[in-house]
UniProtKB/TrEMBL annotation:
InterPro entries: Aromatic_Lyase, Fumarase/histidase_N, HutH, L-Aspartase-like, Phe/His_NH3-lyase_AS. Pfam families: Lyase_aromatic (PF00221). Belongs to the PAL/histidase family. NCBIfam families: hutH, PRK09367.1. Pathway: Amino-acid degradation; L-histidine degradation into L-glutamate; N-formimidoyl-L-glutamate from L-histidine: step 1/3. PANTHER family: HISTIDINE AMMONIA-LYASE. Keywords: Histidine metabolism, Lyase. The keyword Repressor does not apply. This is Histidine ammonia-lyase.
Length: 518
């Protein structure tokens, strides 16, 4: 990861999407703001006052969950917090991605910084230092039910803070947490009353993945408009259905934005102009072309709704019990339940599957001589001898089929836990994990449509594509995603196209011509 390129200050206000991605993906360092230290001191004062009282308070001087009825004496409370973290760090399966773990740690720190969890400033500062040092706890795929928050994933993070468990250092090397802390000049945290609970009782894992998915889907949906424009052009479709006055009759903002993008991308297309005259006998295009703004736009509006939910969650202080500064109370609550986040994660998986489906339908049209309006079968150089892009579409169809399976909602499930104390859970973590796979799948689907449409546009020569779509074709060709010709090993070309879509390079190439798209 190297030296952090910037530092994100965590205070009592909500983090932005850009700050989360800077820490998660760019290795930005983290520091606590002055307002955070003030809030932390206020919250801790409440906890320490209640810790010294004779009346038990949940999370401070009692057990947890179904064991909350036991009063824990002062000399065992530090052991209680350590035991809580150790017992809850029970994740299993493959490692969770580094960017997810870093985002999760940052979001937990953001909640701690509000002062509503009652942790000491020293403990919060240690978590910030762990992020700045690039030390990433090993978190496993399975273990969270999304209620009470993402307990197991966050427990693995807290365990590393204590100098236990496994981590990866800034270079990605796997090692014991104690060694990584020592190498970075950090001391393990010694947890006091309530701190173990505060470090693990939040929706930060599922929220981290929601923020990253929204960020990716915003870019992908604009790139999907590029793919659709290329297919419309290559299939001798019309841009007239995308006119603003037509779109205004159904005033969904995402639809209008998508249609405006399609119009901008296709501006000046010689291919589109070639069949605009009275000799054209086609009345209207197929749905996968003509309805692109409606489908892409619905997905855009879904992402906008998910971003609104994520924004509210970024402004939240999720913990149980929660410290209320105003009247010195520590109150039990249900804010850790992941339902608000789980629902939109599932909603996004549905939208992702559907836009991938319409993309695949456009790709299939490009390959079928009955519907491609003069293109060779499968865009092959010598159909029969060559298979062209026949099997590229198989790969795309396989991904789309997987995305449809991933669209089955996780949030409708609930398995009671903790001796029925936790008798309804959100499964939000599971929803987040499948959405990550869906976003990766959509990236591949969009890349294959772009790769296929680019070959089709080459085959429309001497007709000239629009300047924007021509820029995409040139980008693909410059990086070895070759044009028409005899059959060759295509997997590397698909991978290059996937990388160009995922990095935003395709979008950059188009916007260098059109300006910023919606």
């Amino acid at each position: 990861m190297g030296t952090p390129r910037q530092t994100v200050t965590v205070g009592t206000g909500p983090l932005s999407f850009a700050q989360v991605t800077a820490v998660a993906r760019d290795g930005a360092g983290v520091r606590l703001g002055d307002d955070a230290f003030s809030a932390l001191e206020k919250g801790r004062a409440v906890v320490e006052e209640l810790a010294s009282a004779s009346t038990p308070t949940y999370g401070i001087s009692t057990g947890f969950g179904a064991l909350a009825t036991r009063h824990i004496p002062p000399d065992l409370r530090a052991a209680l917090q350590r035991s809580l973290v150790r017992s809850h760090a029970v994740g299993s399966g493959p490692e969770v991605e580094r960017e997810v773990v870093r985002a999760m740690m940052l979001l937990r720190l953001s909640t701690l910084a509000t002062g509503h969890t009652g942790v000491r400033a020293e403990t919060a500062a240690r978590l910030a230092a762990l992020l700045s040092a690039g030390i990433t706890p090993v978190v496993r795929e399975y273990g969270s039910l999304g209620c009470s928050g993402d307990l197991a994933p966050l427990a693995h993070c807290a365990l590393a803070l204590m100098g236990e468990g496994e981590v990866r250092d800034a270079s990605g090397t796997l090692m014991p947490a104690a060694e990584a802390l020592a190498a970075s000049g950090l001391r393990p945290a010694e947890l006091h009353e309530k701190e173990g609970l505060a470090l693990i009782n939040g929706t930060d894992g599922m929220l981290a993945q929601l923020v990253l998915a929204v960020t990716d889907l915003r870019r992908l949906l604009t790139t999907l408009d590029i793919a659709a424009a290329m297919s419309v052009e290559a299939l001798l479709g019309t841009d007239r259905a995308f006119a603003p006055d037509i779109q205004a009759l159904r005033p969904h903002p995402g639809q209008a934005a998508s249609a405006a993008n399609l119009t901008a991308i296709l501006a000046g297309s010689g291919v589109v102009a070639s069949h605009r005259g009275p000799h054209c006998t086609r009345v209207q295009d197929a749905y996968s072309l003509r309805c692109s703004p409606q489908v892409h736009g619905a997905a855009r509006d879904t992402v906008a709704h998910a971003a609104t939910v994520a924004g509210r969650e970024l402004a939240a202080a999720v913990d149980n019990p929660v410290v209320l500064h105003g009247d010195g109370r520590v109150a039990s609550n249900g804010n850790f339940h992941g339902a608000p986040v789980a629902y939109v994660l599932d909603f996004l998986a549905i939208a992702t599957a559907d836009v991938a489906s319409i993309s695949e339908r456009r790709t299939d049209r490009l390959l079928d001589t009955a519907r491609s309006h003069g293109l060779p079968a499968f865009l092959a150089d010598d159909p029969g001898v060559d298979s062209g892009y026949m099997i590229v579409q198989y790969t795309q169809a396989a991904v789309v089929a997987e995305l449809k399976r991933l669209a089955a909602p996780a949030s409708v499930d609930s398995i009671p836990t903790s001796a029925m104390a936790e008798d309804h859970v959100s499964m939000g973590w599971g929803a987040a994990r499948k959405l990550r796979r869906a976003v990766d799948g959509l990236t591949r689907v969009v890349a294959i449509e772009i790769l296929t449409a680019a070959r089709a546009l080459d085959l429309r020569a001497p007709l000239e594509p629009a300047a924007a779509t021509r820029a995409v074709v040139a980008l693909l060709r410059s990086l070895g995603a070759g044009g028409p010709g005899p059959d060759r090993y295509l997997a590397p070309e698909v991978d290059r196209a996937v990388a160009l879509v995922g990095s935003g390079a395709v979008l950059d190439a188009v916007e260098s011509v059109t300006g910023t798209l919606s």
